[in-house]
Write a structure and sequence with these properties.
Two copies of one chain form a homodimer. In chain A, the strands form two sheets. Chain A has a four-stranded parallel β-sheet with strand order 4-3-5-6. Chain A folds into two domains: 49 residues, Helicase, Ruva Protein, domain 3; 130 residues, Dna Topoisomerase Vi A Subunit, Chain: A, domain 2, CATH 3.40.1360. In chain A, strand 3, helix 5 and strand 4 form a beta-alpha-beta unit. In chain A, 27% of the residues are buried. In chain A, helix 1 packs across helix 2. By secondary structure, the first copy, chain A, is an alpha/beta fold. Chain A contains nine helices and six strands. Chain A is globular and about 65 Å long. Chains A and B meet through helix 1, helix 2, helix 3, strand 2 and helix 5 of A and helix 1, helix 2, helix 3, strand 2 and helix 5 of B.
């Protein structure tokens, strides 16, 4: 692409560095911003810089927070004895959006994946151990990727914590609600059969 | 979507206001920026604000410029007697990217479209008249949308300028290079037949 303006080119290149944004999309976004009021564009620019500068990670659960402790950990209505262990804050946002979980979280920052050079030390596993040690936690619910790495991570953490009197569960895997059996992959279908549930349980939901 | 951080939510909402960016994509972009160094995010933010603040429109051709007159109008190697008339700076960028045109441009800012409330006065037609008046321009090449509005705009400008001794052309419409006849729409195919070209012309290209 040939630009007659250095300013335009820099802005397009900045947007094109974002994941999934190519040059053409970047140009479309920049031309959109160019049509907005200067104050609106300044607001956009400030919000982005401000976010990066001031956001921090909750010192307890490593969720994103505006303060030392995140709003979920601080909330008196959340059950502190039930911790849902997730990989990233994306899963926190996804689970929060269901409005069905009233425990707290622990964000690992990834899963154990030796091929990618990610060992237990790169994750917040030690912090999780410390949260559990004082006996105030009853249940750990693992909501990790259904992959070998995810299962390894669960196994590793479970081994570490086996001294504790803890209920350890994982979220249910199975056919999606509304999903068609014939299109489900074999692994999902097989696990879904193994973990079949009594009908009264199904109806009571 | 439920966020536990106001800063995160504001940033996601700012991105989600951009055209074609939904909440999920916005979240992906923001989480990407969150992983970058603070200095890089500040640079992104500054480049965007700087672009909006300092970019201007060339006072001659209304192309985007960093200075009073754009680099194309200022270039001594461009033929000032040949003006390509386009709707927006997008077309300038597209044509410049072909590196096949060495005239100059005139950006109308749109086309005459009474239904959208766009009349000749909202466009830079008067400025185009002034550029042509002194007799220094030989040819106007129209590269507008092949729509009724585009044709109306060409007709209107041509009427206005008929006193001038000007060659007026439009870019060729036809079947795209590599395009298949059977998939071309009837209008394009019909025009492409009407405007058929002698073989020697075709070969010489």
């Amino acid at each position: 692409m040939q630009f007659s303006s250095q300013l335009l080119e820099s802005a397009v290149n900045a947007f094109a560095k974002l994941p999934g944004i190519g040059k053409k999309t970047a140009l479309r976004l920049v031309l959109h911003l160019l049509k907005q009021e200067e104050s609106q564009v300044n607001e956009f620019s400030e919000v982005v810089a401000d976010m990066r500068k001031n956001i921090r990670f909750c010192s307890r659960c490593f969720n994103i927070a505006d303060t030392e402790i995140c709003t979920i950990c601080r909330s008196p209505s959340r059950k502190k004895e039930m911790i849902c262990v997730v990989e990233t804050i994306r899963e926190v946002i996804a689970i929060e959006s269901t409005q069905q979980f009233n425990g707290v979280y622990h964000v690992l920052g990834g899963i154990i994946s030796p091929l990618d050079g990610i060992g237990p030390d790169q994750l917040t596993i030690e912090a999780l151990e410390n949260r559990v040690k004082d006996g105030s936690v009853d249940e750990l619910i693992f909501a990790l990727s259904p992959t070998i790495q995810g299962d390894t991570t669960i196994y590793y953490i479970q081994k570490k914590l086996q001294q504790q009197n803890l209920k350890i569960t994982t979220i249910a895997r199975g056919i999606s609600f509304g999903g068609e059996l014939e299109y489900a992959d074999e692994m999902t279908l097989a696990r879904s059969l193994q973990n079949r549930q009594p009908l009264d349980h199904y109806v009571s939901r």
